[in-house]
């Protein structure tokens, strides 16, 4: 599923910035670090295409082991030179959508 979305978001780069929101509610039982492992692998596989398409990734998760998972995503962004912003359950999705829109419109 992640690869299908990344294929769509990186298709036809047109010079404009793009945002990808990877988020969800606060999990009760899912290990967030394990859940994000597949996302991390897909981002790694697509990192060159993500850079060309000017994609910034916004990650919002909460639940068991979320701090570790978010740190892994932050580290991945740094190692691949892809902008990845991470947020925990204290940040609502509405705020993250506003940040993504600001990124697209202003590059901030």
Describe this structure in words.
By secondary structure, the protein is an alpha/beta fold. Helices cover 54% and strands 19% of the residues. It has helices at 2-10, 32-45, 47-52, 66-80, 93-106, and strands at 18-26, 55-62, 84-87. The protein has a 3-stranded parallel β-sheet with strand order 1-2-3, with helices on both faces. Helix 2 (32-45) runs parallel beside helix 4. The radius of gyration is 13 Å and the shape is globular.
Q: Tell me the structural class.
A: alpha/beta
Q: Report the strand count.
A: 3
> What is the rounded distance between the termini?
28 Å
Instruction: Please state the oligomeric state of the protein chains shown.
Output: single chain
Secondary-structure element string: HEHHEHEH
Runs with pLDDT <50, length 5+?
none
Count of helices? 5
How is the biggest beta sheet arranged? Answer: 3 strands, parallel
Q: Strands across the major sheet, in which order? A: 1-2-3
Strand content: 15-25%
Fraction in helix = 40-55%
Q: What's the overall geometry?
A: globular
**Cα-based radius of gyration, to the nearest Å:** 13 Å
Average pLDDT level? 92
């Amino acid at each position: 599923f992640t690869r299908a979305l990344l294929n769509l978001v990186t298709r036809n780069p047109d010079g404009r910035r793009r945002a990808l929101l990877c988020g969800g509610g606060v999990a009760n039982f899912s290990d967030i670090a394990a859940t994000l492992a597949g996302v991390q692998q897909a981002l790694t596989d697509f990192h060159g295409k993500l850079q060309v398409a000017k994609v910034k990734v916004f990650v919002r998760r909460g639940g068991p082991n979320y701090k570790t998972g978010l740190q892994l995503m932050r580290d991945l962004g740094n190692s691949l030179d892809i902008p990845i912003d991470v947020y925990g359950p204290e940040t609502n999705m509405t705020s993250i959508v506003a940040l993504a829109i600001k990124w697209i419109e202003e590059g901030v």
